[in-house]
Specification:
single chain, alpha+beta, four-stranded antiparallel beta sheet
């Protein structure tokens, strides 16, 4: 075979050599062109075979097509390869979070209106205009305007609802207009949520209202196999109809003042109660506004005084004594003024009892002497009393006349005490005289 090739090459060279120079140049040009064309065909074939290699970003997934039909495989972040053009391809799908604003339940606004607060806008004499103004009809038959904002995205592979089917494939097969589908689901959910709520409930609990809308709208999207997930819904603006906005603003201001007055009153009451009953005052009087139910497991029950009063009203003596003992225990361990008063009363009571006992003992000791000789015993006791009086530094004894047996005793009282006595005597004579402080 090598001999044949060499013979063929020799024959070709002989044929070229036998050509004239022009034909020789043409043959060489054709040979070079054929080699270049072969190289280009090989290069095109290589480029064609790698033409469907693409890069998938961090917020993307790739859906694989083959002969125009979506395959069950989804390519995550990284490089993806599909069959060459006309056989297969990879379509990128954005999975990042997107947002949409729902104004279906909001009032119609011009460019000028958006520069003014709601209360300063011109109100149409026709009221709400169908096709222009939107509103929710609440369960108490009121109208309420809301503006909603929703964040949504395609579910991830770990969040798929149908086993073996990636949410991105469901999205591609079943969704043609994602914002419109989201808007429709949220509007339907908002209408249902408002239908069983009062307007005050929506106003006071926007967060709960938005959560209910989100859950209801998500169920509808899942039923439609949309492959989308609602990330969040918020009520960005809310308002009563503009015709009544002034009245509602006044009512809202009154409600705010009421809350402030109640808050201030509760703060003052708590301060007074802490001063009187200490930090444990709630165990005595409770807090009927904040705490309506008593915890049965609480070792220190609340509103003991109220429970004691109820027991007295029922005539339950045993429970009355038990509650009184609990009240006494709380007051004994508190740090308020009531504790100081109770301790002072206990001290004075103890002193009074001790003094009474001493006096009773003294009279018991004097009784035999009195029975034996009353006049002598009284004279002796009177002498002791006089001695104590004369020994006082506030008493001055004046003896008048040598033969006079009369003794005058003049007391030296404190000037402030004398002034107070004078004022009290003046009050007895003239009730309209007002007394001042001690001088």
């Amino acid at each position: 075979m090598e001999m044949n090739n060499e013979n063929q090459q020799s024959d070709g060279d002989l044929q070229v050599d036998q050509m004239d120079p022009a034909q020789q140049q043409l043959a060489k040009a054709l040979r070079s062109s054929f080699r270049l064309l072969s190289f280009l065909m090989i290069l095109v074939l290589i480029l064609f075979s790698v033409s469907e290699v693409t890069s998938i970003g961090p917020n993307e997934v790739g859906i694989v097509y083959r002969f125009g039909k979506i395959q069950d495989e989804v390519v995550e972040e990284g490089l993806a390869y599909a069959w060459p053009f006309m056989i297969g391809r990879v379509e990128k799908v954005d999975t990042s979070q997107r947002e949409i604003e729902i104004n279906d339940f909001w009032v119609y606004e011009t460019a000028e209106d958006r520069t003014k607060p709601l209360i300063d806008r011109t109100v149409s004499s026709e009221g709400l205009r169908p096709g222009y103004d939107g509103a929710l009809l609440t369960g108490d038959q009121s109208l309420y305007h809301v503006r909603l904002r929703c964040g949504y995205q395609i579910r991830s592979g770990d969040d798929q609802l149908t086993e073996g089917v990636h949410p991105a494939i469901q999205y591609k097969l079943n969704v043609t207009d994602a914002p419109e589908m989201i808007r429709s689901a949220i509007c339907s959910a908002a209408i249902r949520a408002a239908a069983h709520r009062t307007v005050d409930d929506i106003y006071s609990n926007r967060g709960d209202f938005a959560i209910e809308i989100k859950n209801s709208a998500q169920k509808r999207l899942d039923t439609m196999l949309s492959g989308m997930r609602i990330v969040n819904i918020s009520v960005t603006e809310a308002s009563w109809p503009l015709q009544t906005l002034g009245d509602f603003a006044a009512a809202d201001a009154a409600r705010s003042r009421k809350k402030k007055v109640i808050s201030d009153a509760k703060g003052l009451a708590a301060e007074i109660l802490r001063l009187v009953a200490g930090r444990t005052y709630e165990h005595l009087v409770g807090d009927p506004i904040e705490r309506k139910d008593q915890d049965p497991d609480d070792k220190n029950p609340y509103d003991l005084i109220g429970q004691y009063a109820k027991a007295r009203t029922r005539g339950d003596n045993k429970e009355s004594k038990d509650k009184l003992a609990e009240i006494d225990k709380v007051l004994s361990n508190t740090d308020g003024a009531a504790h100081d008063l109770i301790e002072k009363a206990r001290t004075e009571s103890k002193e009074f009892i001790e003094n009474t006992k001493r006096r009773a003992t003294r009279f018991t000791e004097l009784l035999p002497k009195y029975n034996e000789n009353p006049e002598f015993m009284l004279a002796a006791e009177w002498t002791k009393v006089l001695s104590e009086i004369f020994a006082s530094p506030t008493v001055e004894v004046v003896v008048v006349g040598a033969g006079n047996r009369k003794i005058n005793i003049q007391t030296k009282q404190d000037p402030a005490t004398i002034a107070r006595i004078v004022r009290e005597l003046a009050k007895l004579k003239d009730p309209h005289v007002s007394g001042g402080g001690d001088e």
